[in-house]
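Ticket #4471: structure export looks truncated?
Reporter: QA, pipeline team
Priority: medium

Steps to reproduce: submit the single chain below to the structure queue and open the exported record.
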Amino acid sequence: MGILLAAVTAVSCCAMAAFAAVTQQPRVVLKESGVRNQYILRLEEFSSKFESVQFDICIDRQVNAPEVIWRDRSSAHFQRIDTNQKDGKTILTVYIDRLRPIANSNSVELAELTFDQSIPASRFSVESGMIALDGDQEKTVFQNPSLKVTGATSGSSGSNSGSGGNRGSGGGGGDSDSDSDDASSSKTLDWGDVSSRITESDGQKVLTIRVREGQVIGHEIFRQAAQKGVQLKLDYGDYIWTFHITKGISIPTNRMYYDFSIEKIQYKNLSTAVDNTDLVQFEIAYSGQLPCEATLSYRVGSHYTGETVHLSYYNESEATLDYQESAKVASNGMADYTFTHASKYVISSKDVWTPPTQQSGATTPSGTTGSAGGNNTNITVTPEDEIEEPEAPAEPDEEPVSSESEPDDLGPEEPVDAEMEEPDRGSVNWILPVVILLLIAGAVGVAVVIILRIRANREDDY
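Actual output as written to the record:
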């Protein structure tokens, strides 16, 4: 009996784990933007099949309703945040209803929330019971969505994976003295921390800052550099930002710092959009208009030296990949691009924006262009959960044997066994729970039969 009960318990635990794996748990993220008292509201691990969502953010104190600026400003979508006070707490109820996936790649920035007071990260929590609807209005309730609050002053409840050595990796060379000069106990670098690093080259003053992981750039660095006519370089190792400050800057009065670190991302739908020729997908921590025009030198690898690679911007609101610029990879493996805006981007080896070369005498279809820099410079990005897993490559056919060397009395060819098709994700999602439930029912049935037989044997003994 003990063995049977242990078996039933083990099977039940496996069933619970399987159900948890099948249902992807979304995460609510509040990320400090660098503007005083402002957070960026994001959703991560949120399926692209959902077009509507409702959830509550709880603040463990009474605060006024925040100013809300939505990332997607389409008038065709319903987006609202209600603020209510209850038991000394503030509840922000988020409602979003769109005519397309809310998170086309399972991760999306929703809005900027600006409060009239500072709110520590520990004061935020997410209430249970997130409700999501798909395109067919089928409802899914997530009982335990998680919350992550990140920023230079709030710290982080958990870093995103995939960043590797890209945030202040220090892989760009340089001596140890320069590293120690730019190191700071504070996460926010100020003018006093870096001003001694100004050098002059070809009559141009240049301030080069080696940025460590987790460090951000105080707004005063940009202001002072502009006043002194200094060009600013931020060296993160695998990438370098060069800000052309002498052309003029624009910094909001309530901006405290900028975070120009870059994190690698990996979305299947972006890979598919560029025919799986993406060399890197990345997201800049800061999102929005840059304080001035900048050049990003990104290391794609010296083995691409001399090749032309293409930069595109992921427009999440329109679900498109918009061509930006092409660049030739230098001998050090770096490709240089001009930036005025920060968001999510893809560098690919294939120019998917240029239509195929037209044959002689053929006409160009209406709406197409002959180069990536033409008018038609965006392609549609399929929702992440609609991307099918790539099929395994077919086995190459054997070369036919010449009839001259082949005997005429060959027997019939042996039939080739067809490969079993792999079930899609949707099938796995319901097959697995059914199989587990059947196993549980079988184990319970066996246990009941054995118990009844033991009782019958005891009665016979008496």
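Status: closed, not a bug. The export was complete when the record was re-opened. Leaving a note from the reviewer for reference: The helical segments are 2-22, 176-182, 191-194, 219-227, 268-273, 425-461.
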